[in-house]
Amino acid sequence: MVTVLPFAWDPSATYVKGDQVTFEGAVYTAQWWTRGEVPGSVAAGAWARVGALETCTAGDVTQWTASAVYVAGDRVVYDGRVYEAAWWTRGTVPGGASGPWQDRGACVDSGESTVETWASSTVYVAGDQVAFDGHLWQARWWTRGTEPGGQWGPWQDLGALPAAS
């Protein structure tokens, strides 16, 4: 079992839409450019609460190492995020724009199970669930790079995620 955390919020850092941070036991996603705004401090502010930090237990997740061989479906933690191998790889650092690794996001508590946060580089198929903008979303069909939201898109809003306890 590995705890997966986005980067901790830094008051001096600049964030853009989609960036995720942890702050006081919760995960937040930036809704637009922001700098210095404390996550959760403004009701309609730049930060949307995604959910409480949760231990990621989805599959066998291990720390990435350059010398290990990974095959399709293997999951690793690198730089605070979960990545899944799309094919055989060895020595390729997760997180690049192309290559064998798909960013599966951070893990958050959906109330009933642990789900990953939405990541633009990940391929999702019908039935896959993600956390985004404080809601739980389910893919209606194959999608990649389409942000959850909108009535006619590939994502169905399953409702707000529960508040941290």
UniProtKB/TrEMBL annotation:
Residues 8-50, 61-104, 115-158 form the Chitin-binding type-3 domain. This is Chitin-binding type-3 domain-containing protein. Keywords: Hydrolase. It comes from Demequina litorisediminis. It holds the Pfam family CBM_5_12. The keyword Hydrolase applies.
